[in-house]
Amino acid sequence: MDSFHYESVGLPSPSETVGKVITCKAAVAWSPGEPLVIEEIKVDPPQKMEVRIKILYTSICHTDLSAWQGENERQRSFPRILGHEASGVIESVGEEVEDLKRGDHVVPIFTGECGECAYCKSDKTNLCEKFRVNPFRSVMVSDGKTRFSTKEGKPIFHFLNTSTFTEYTVLDSACVVKIDSDAPLKKMTLLSCGVSTGVGAVWNTAKVQSGSTVAIFGLGAVGLAVAEAARGRGASKIIGVDINPNKFIKGKAMGITDFINPKEVVDVRLHQKIREMTGGGGVDYSFECVGNLDVLREAFSSTHDGWGLTVILGIHASPTLFPLHPMELFDGRRIVGTIFGDFKGKSQLPLLAHDCMCGKVNLDEFITHELPFEKINDAFRLLVDGKSLRCLIHL
C-alpha cells in the first residue's frame, strides 16, 4: 500500500516522516491584503485524535478571500495559513484515531463531526458541539497550540479547522472525511465547501421538489451548485440573479432557465420583477449566496406568499441586522440559514462523493482554471476579478 501511494501521489515512506516534524512549502499570509508568500515551514506530527495530510489539490473560495483581506477584525490572526477546500492522502495519524489510516484518500471539512456529542447524534442538525465551524479559532482544539511554525520557530496560525494552502497540514480527525479511493481527488476538492453547501441547501435544507420555481441570488460556485442541484430535482424554472453577465453563460450550462442583471432592472424592484416572471406569486424557493443584506431582503420578498422559503448561504460579515418586521413572517414566508448544506460531513459526504461519481452532480463545470502552487496569488486575482468559479491549485 505504501509503495502504491509513493508512486502515485509522492507519499514518503513511514520512516521518513511518521512521528517527525516535516519541512515543506506553504503559502503564508503574513498580513491582511498582502500577497501570500510561499516559503518553507515546519509541520508538527499529529497529536491525539489528529491527522496529518499531504495536500494534493486545493482551491480558493470567497471565505478565504474575506479572511485574507481581513474583513473581520476578530479574524486577524497573522501569520496564517488559509485554505479550506482540498483533497489529499493521510500521511500519519495520532493516537486513538481509529476510523482513518495512512494512505486513505480524504477531503478536509471546515465544520467537523465527532460522532459522540448530542448534536452529532441528533438528526435535527449537522453542527458538532466541539468541532463546529469557528472562523475565529486559529489554534488546535486539543491544546490551544498551532502545528505550524516558521523555520525560526515562530508560530503560524490555523484557519477554519483546515489550513490547506500548504503541502502538509494537521487537522482534528473530526474534520477529515475518507472517500472512495476510486474517486478523482481533483474533483473531490470541490466537496470541502462550495459545491456541498449549494447542493445540500437544495437537497437537505429546502428539499426542493419537482416542478418548483427557484431564484438564486449570486452565481458564484455556491449559487451554481444550487442551480445544478435544483435542475437535478426537476425545478421547472430556475432564475439566476447576478450583476456579472459573464456568469449567465456558465449558468445556462448548469440548469438556469432565466437570468436577471439587477443593474438592468430600473422600473420595478427586483423582487417585483421575479414575481412578474412567476405569474405574480413569486418563487417557491430563493437562495441568497452573496452575503449582502439588501440582496437578502430582495430574496425574501421574491418568494411566494403562504409557503415561500429563503435559504441563506452567503456569509454576512457586517454587524448590521436584517431589516425584517416580525409580522412579515405571518404571511407564511420563511427564512433559514444553512451551514455546509446541512450535510453531516464524515457520515454523509462519502455518499455525496458517490453521487458525483455516478453523475448526479456534474463537478467538471465548476473548475474553470488550474494553476501550480507557486501561482496561488494569481488564483486569488482571478476570484477578485470575477473570472473564475474554482481555480484548482496543484501542489
Query: How are helices and strands ordered from N to C?
Result: HHEEEHEEHEEEEHHEHEHEHEHEEHEHE
DSSP strand tally: 17
The largest pleated sheet is described as:
7 strands, mixed
CATH class of the largest domain: Alpha Beta
Number of domains: 2
CATH names the topology of the largest domain as: Quinone Oxidoreductase, Chain A, domain 1
Taking pLDDT < 50 over at least 5 consecutive residues as the criterion, the unreliable ranges are 1-7
Radius of gyration, in angstroms, nearest whole number: 21 Å
Based on the coordinates given, report the CATH architecture of the largest domain. Answer: Alpha-Beta Complex
End-to-end CA span? 22 Å
- The CATH homologous superfamily of the largest domain is called Medium-chain alcohol dehydrogenases, catalytic domain
Note the total helix count: 12
Strand content: 15-25%
The general outline is globular
Mean pLDDT: 94
Helix content: 25-40%
Helix-strand category = alpha/beta
